[in-house]
Write a structure and sequence with these properties.
Elements: E1 2-6, H1 11-24, E2 27-34, H2 44-51, E3 55-60, H3 62-76, H4 87-106, E4 110-112, H5 121-132, E5 137-139, H6 150-159, E6 173-176, E7 181-184, E8 214-221, E9 224-228, E10 231-232, H7 235-248, E11 253-259, E12 265-271, H8 273-289, H9 292-310, H10 317-329, E13 335-342, E14 345-352, H11 360-363, H12 373-381
Parallel strand pairs: 1-2, 1-4, 2-3, 4-5
Antiparallel strand pairs: 6-7, 7-12, 8-9, 8-13, 9-10, 11-12, 13-14
Length: 397
């Protein structure tokens, strides 16, 4: 039997390499995508082999991740439950796609992943796998094996001399990519306690951030960020640079209790410094470029788009249809937004676009405007409600 495993090098998948080989007498092929994990990829191939992997694929997918997944979500304005910028969620359909490419190449019998039966990733991975091969055999060890906790996994790893980085002293789980780092589980499950300040990697705390504000300008073309302070960057470098700038200014930390797909509430702590800057800037540019009705309708679709991504429904006709609508709204989204960042806060200094529909002369209180026009408008606008505002019988108002 030949099994392709979505491998991260973390506790779960490290243990699973050994467990899959032992349980199924199988050849285990590990697949890991470089989507910006940084030093987490150091010696990854060697660690996989030491865990028992027969073959290891590591593919640099950072640019594909940004261009085909992050930027569409940014243009859509997709934010789950008003705060989560979908860093883990956006990576899963790409990973599923690449896993299935290896399955085809290796003529494998099945796939495996490290998601638990409580979380979202099991759905994201498996819907992604089945989008490319509906009948693929999926092995989810967390639903099968006798291990009941991360402590059990740690003991299993120690017993079989499997190299892991997680310890009993720091048993929370992390997921890192170019867009963010997430932290959950373990000591973070006590929602009455704040996270350890030493836990964070990408961002400084406001107390430790520099005492001078940072001013930066983000340049967009058709809704896509292209430049920082008039210097053009490729997609990956742009996010890396904004992560650095945002992190130095304590931008992008959130601590939320979110509603998982299966209904369980879960605490998640996230760092998304560059992503936060881009979302703020993109929204501000839309405020001067999009007309009211388009903008308001897009806000409705943004929420739906975020749910599709979070629920693992990336490979669906609805997501593709919303992308088509969003792309149309972004045709005039060219311009510059200048922000001031300071100790975890941000403010907008300037909004500029050649396609701006903001008219200073029309908005100004000093403009010569015939205010009598408004009398007929307000009368017609409220006509259908006349008689409802006041009733002698009910005396509602």
């Amino acid at each position: 039997m030949k099994i392709v495993l979505a491998y991260s090098g973390g506790l779960d998948t490290s243990v699973m390499v050994h467990w899959l080989k032992k349980t199924y007498d199988a050849e285990v092929i590990c697949v890991c995508l470089d989507i910006g994990q940084g030093e987490e990829l150091d010696d990854l191939k060697e660690r996989a082999i030491r865990s028992g992997a027969d073959k290891v694929y590591i593919e640099d997918c950072k640019e594909e991740f940004v261009v085909d997944y992050i930027f569409p979500a940014l243009k859509a304005g997709a934010v789950y439950e008003e705060r989560y910028l979908l860093g883990t969620s956006l990576a899963r359909p790409l990973i599923a796609k690449k896993i299935m490419e290896v399955v085809k190449k290796e003529e494998a019998d099945g796939v495996s992943h490290g998601a638990t039966g409580k979380g979202n990733d099991q759905v994201r991975f498996e819907l992604g796998f089945r989008a490319f091969s509906p009948d693929i055999k999926i092995i989810a060890p967390w639903r099968i094996w006798d291990l009941k906790s991360r402590e059990d996994e740690i003991r299993y790893a120690e017993k079989h001399r499997i190299p892991i980085s997680v310890t009993k002293e720091k048993p929370y789980s992390t997921d890192r990519n170019l867009w963010h780092i997430s932290y959950e589980g373990g000591i973070l499950e006590d929602i009455t306690k704040e996270p350890d300040r030493d836990m964070f990697i990408l961002t400084k705390s406001p107390d430790d951030a520099k005492n001078e504000p940072t001013i930066l300008k983000i340049g967009f073309e058709r809704g896509i960020p292209k430049a920082i302070d008039d210097k053009e960057y490729n997609p990956v470098s742009l996010i890396e640079e904004l992560n650095k700038i945002g992190g130095e200014n304590a931008i992008g930390r959130i601590d939320i209790v979110e509603n998982r797909l299966i209904g369980i509430k879960s605490r998640g702590v996230y760092e998304t410094p560059g992503g936060t800057i881009l979302y703020i800037s993109h929204r501000e540019l839309e405020s001067i470029v999009l007309d009211r009705e388009t903008m308001h309708y897009k806000e409705i679709l943004a929420k739906k788009y975020a749910e599709l991504v979070y629920y693992g429904l990336w490979w669906t006709p609805l997501r593709e249809a919303i992308d088509s609508f969003v792309d149309k709204t972004q045709e005039n989204m060219t311009g510059d937004i200048t922000l001031k960042l300071y100790k975890g806060t941000y403010s907008v200094i300037s909004r500029e676009s050649p396609n701006s529909i903001y008219k200073k002369d029309l908005a100004s209180f000093d403009t010569d405007f015939n205010h009598k026009y408004a009398e007929g408008f307000t009368k017609l606008f409220g006509l259908q409600y006349e008689g409802l505002f006041y009733s002698e019988k009910s005396a509602k108002y």
